[in-house]
Batch of 4 targets.
Target 1
Amino acid sequence: MKNYFLLLLTMALSMFKTQALAYDLAIENADGVTIYYSFTSDGKTLEVVRENEYAPKIYYKGDVVIPEEVTFMNRTYKVVGIHSYAFYYCEELTSVTIPSSITKIGEYAFCSCKSLTSINIPDGVTSVGREAFSHCYKLSSANIPTSLTVTAAGMFAECENLETIEIPNSITTLSESTFAKCYNLKSVYIPNNVIKMEAGVFRQCSGLESVRLPDDITKISTSSFYNCTALKSVKIPESVETIDDYAFSGCNKLDTIIIPSSVTSIGKGAFACDNLGTVISLIKTPFAVTGNSSNERTFSQNTFKYGTLYVPAGLKNKYQSKNGWSDFRYVEDGLPSNVPSVIENNKENEVYDLSGRRQATLQRGTNIIHSKDGSTKKVLIK
């Protein structure tokens, strides 16, 4: 009887092992590193996978070069994908070379690769899964390929050391939490082709000092810049109609905000910024916002009590008759004399660094400015 149960246990373990195997081929690359592959649905191409999806401690280490194609039994197969979780939690993976043959990277593919310092995603990749590169804490440089039109949700979330990122003109949508908690990200230029930014794109990017929003965006989504505590200024484009809940909440270095006339809705906590002392509203038909008596007040208590609200001439009474706006202690009937120039100056010239990367605003060091009149000049910021 004992032998019978031992046989059953052996069979069960064997079945589990067979089911746990996540690969079809195991082939060494040119460096002698064994890479595991599974066939895609067409049975003719391959994608990189984990050796064993049920054993997270069995993983890739060191420098890994993924080949464009592999040969097995005199037959050559093209490598076209990196499967979901393929390199998940590979804490000792220091670098990976992704070939140009790759078109798809699955969800969590490189999540929590804590020793990975840089990644180059080749043009040709048209699909990236959720949080593909999230929690790569040492990742300081990365790129978004021009073949992508939509970033993955949480694509670089919690990449704490990511300092710069260039968003290509091909991108039309920045998905939810794409750069959330990228604490060292300091400046971002978002090209005009981006027409949609989902919730929390830059949430808790505490080092973010400047951002350039695209001209045609109509909505600043929930928590887009929540707790971006270093953000000093932002121009809200005249295309924006909706500013959602907590969009700029916790941006405590913001001292002035201009709300364009196009805005028809402002959510709770949207501008809960402790040091926001000047609110310039160009809205001609004011609507209710969440007032000072609520814990989810649209503006901070400090702003309501000590800040100044500037409104278009002749509209002071309209604002003071609307919930929320009426809680401002100080309201000026008429805009500051410099508002037209402020708005015009915020239609920024193109700013580049010396390596040719587009910047949101002038940065410390040498800046190359392409002016609207076609001229170019260098500006040194110390």
Target 2
Amino acid sequence: MTTKIRTQTQLYDRLSEEIAWRRKELIYIKSVIEKNRYTAIINTLIRSGIPILYAHWEGFVKNAATSYIEFVARQNLKYEELACNFIALAMKTKLKNAQESNKSTIFVEVANFFRTGLSEKCYMQWENAVNTQSNLSSVIFKDIICCLGLDYSIYETKEKLIDEKLLRSRNEIAHGKELLIDYEQYIELHDEVINLINLFFNQIDNAASTKSYLHKNYASVHLTSTP
């Protein structure tokens, strides 16, 4: 049974487990490619490695982001204590229902919540909160980063890498195109993906540690309390 993520330590342990097996598999694949660099099967190995690189990138982003949202949801906070991005996340279902129904009564309920409901304990559904759409482009990743209240600017120089070298290459291979990537390009992409995963890991861990999920008016109070 999966441990519930209630503390920063439990979040760190979950992220560490998540990153460890992914890094191990990617390093193993890289070593196989390195050993077969000058053999006839190198192109096949690289073509097989690209979709796995992408899968671990998407998988880690989705699972790590979901784990962070679960952690925040289990802090037993009121809506008004949360940063705006998490209030928006918690309200997503209500806002979606209001938009789809177009009924004035539901819009009034939403408006009333922002008048009187912010002092209530927050309920946040985390299980399906993160949607990579099985196509994790930089645009979708940026939206996830916004949802978590993290800084996207550190990824801006990696957009071409994410969209073209990783996502597009994976899609072309998955759709049966004869895409050939040389050894040096693969090794570079491998290293970049590992760095991206590590960067995202550190961002989430730091956000939990500094309690950046809190509204600034409540941050100082909670930072002095024991998690």
Target 3
Amino acid sequence: MAREQEHALTAIETDPQPAIPSTATAPIAPELPAHTLYVMAAACGASAANIYYCQPLLGDFARQFGGTAQQAGMVATAAQVGYGLGLLLFVPLGDIVERRRVVLTLVAICAVLLLATAAAPTLALLIVAQLLVGITATSSQLLIPLGIDLTPPERRGHTVGVLMAGLLCGLLLARVVAGFVADHFGGWRTVFLLAAGVMIVLGLVLRAELPHRAPTLKMTYGKLMRSLLGLSLHTRNLWPATLVSGLSFGSFIGFWTVLSFLMSDYFGRGASEAGLFGIIGLAGAAAAPLAGRVSDRRGPGFTLLLALLLSMAAFALMWGWVAIASLVIGVLLMDLGVQSIQVAAQAKVIALVPEARSRINTIYMVVRFIGGAAGSAIAASAWTYAKWPGVCAAAMTGLALATAIHFIGTRRERMAINQPVPVAP
């Protein structure tokens, strides 16, 4: 508790116009009911799915609009960039506005923008529409801090694991649904019409299920945004786990960005087959709660290192042996590794400053999706110039850098713990 209070005071002192919190910790609330937790997990998945429907459809976009692989890849990049912008603009509001209200508003706007995506007449407008969808698809990152607020400290890893399992199921099943619907039910436009319907239903369910939770601070939006700088500069132990997550996510999104091109050029398969790899990735999503429990027991550092090694092994296998079988094994290992990194890193970071969880989560997730957007753009370019070997080389480089950052961060944490406390004379 003393360490959390120290972090809280540091963040407040470094804010140029500080907040006015009533206490140094978040207010106590009843534990989150199990059925509500699972509804929130489903909502996380449905919201996050909106930025991944496009990935197995990139080949369809290129053919319909006459674009190159690199140009079509900008649709996926725009969705990632938009998500990062939405995290920056809207997720911090969870500290000063009731999260339920913000979530319901974003869900409604996202449904309208998905309808606009389905009607896009040109590739340029499709890119813009996906950028806007990404901005409003961020409700899951308001639900995760809400779940943590309503969970005892010793079970927060489990709660993050359940919510992330829901998010990851949505992320992975989005590709399966998009590929199948596009090939068998009227093309890619039908995919986004279906997604709009899902968001409408989601809004009605959340309106009935989401608990009310008063914000922890009284602060203007301008002060709120300025406080992000102080938190990012002075929150101890924030950056190593955040950068590791961003780099690993970049490798993950890079793979999915080029998968439809890989399946078409190397194996003569279409969007349905590319989307089916999402089913394999569900094993990684199913392991998210397990990763949360391992993080609770063994610590996030152990979980992060193990997950990074799994991710590098996945790309090494897929680089050295290009076959359907290697892709199946590689996707399984990659998803297990990247999702375990997400659970361990987010559980660690989001607990650093209790009364600023939404803003800490904003910093973490913005960096994560900057990594995703960069990974998408780099993978599309690598495919254009060096095909599959170039994509794997880029992913391995990012994961190697993440591993180095993890070792440096862990060493600094140990040095800080072992540093003797000066005794007053």
Target 4
Amino acid sequence: MNRYRQGLEDLRRALLDLHKALLDAERLAYERIHGRVSSAGEFLQLAMHDPWFAWLHPLSQLVVRIDALLDESDEAGVLQDLMEELRELLRPSEYGEGFARSYYDMLQRSPDVVLAHSQVKRFL
């Protein structure tokens, strides 16, 4: 396996761990307000369509793009572009909006998210 592909797969695994930690933490917050989500299928629908989870969509979309790159491309430059995009996306901001602000808040309240974030940062 070449270095580019291995790096992309390692980054993908770290991003999936971060994404899961964010979803788990956000599910807990959602359930505190709206009550228990009864099934995995219901939660999937919420994660995809409910505005509560919309801030996570940019990260989800980057994971999908990595999957496509693993299927199609072997170009190292594509990996560099993607990593730069991730560096920008994963910049928490106390005073920002959208993903940056929600990500900042999540890093403040979830140790699992902090650990997953540090794993992703190792690859960036």
